[in-house]
Request: fold
Amino acid sequence: MKLRKQAFEDIYPSRHAAEPEMLERRDPVVFGDWRPGSPLSREQVERFDREGYLVLENVLDPAELSALDVEMRRLLGDPGTLEAETVVSEPGSREIRSIFAIHRQSRLIGRLAADERLAGLAAFLLGDDVYVHQSRLNYKPGFKGKEFYWHSDFETWHAEDGMPRMRALSMSVLLAENTPLNGPLMVMPGSHRTYVTCVGQTPPDHYRMSLRKQEYGVPDELSLATLAHRHGIEAPTGKPGTIILFDCNMMHGSNGNITPFPRANAFLVFNAVSNRLQAPFAADRPRPPFVAERDFAPIAPQAGPLDRLAA
Reply:
């Protein structure tokens, strides 16, 4: 599928120059105006603006988590019922690494993505109606779970999907305990205010390789070291029911998991409807919809317990 020429100025150029650059962010982090009754406290909003991520504990209750656990085991245990292209295995293994477009293949996770505790919060921070740009069930098995190298999601979404501006965020809904030992998410707090450009021309159909192991759109080591020394590295953890939300330009990654304890999460990306995808800025054609949704219909946030749907 080819799209028309870009209608937006490329203020975040990447994969064009021979050398990487560190550019200053040109978009706000928080677009909504805080007022009493907002879904976050003023302190939480200020922390998200400053550090680029938040950890929200006990968002889901035990009954909801039980329903999601049953659903996760069903999906992982019978991948033949899923769209084949959406199931991504670990490099060099048949272990499932991710299941993409999970909000469209699981009624329960679709309801989770529309929940006001998630979609409503995203709409507040982004100051707009939102839609799900990408969803996946991430599973890092015990002993064999591979690492996710450092990257900014926005660089890929901009270059390969045509996301114009930094007006998106991700939510990782923990479905198994994330400990300091089983390969938790690592972030560089404050790095979301610096855009690291990458080198190398995007190969055709790069997504087929990058979903297993990314080689293009990977930041250079000097830029990563500079950000790490400037901001430090943190590894937010939590029990099932915790939500870790972070800005689209946050530099993040994770180590491999050599413990016997798997790590699992439902990963949901919310994009502002006004920031809908255009033609890719550094690829010959857009990635398929199961990786980068092009149905921009806004979510109508829903209230009520998730487990009612599973009953």
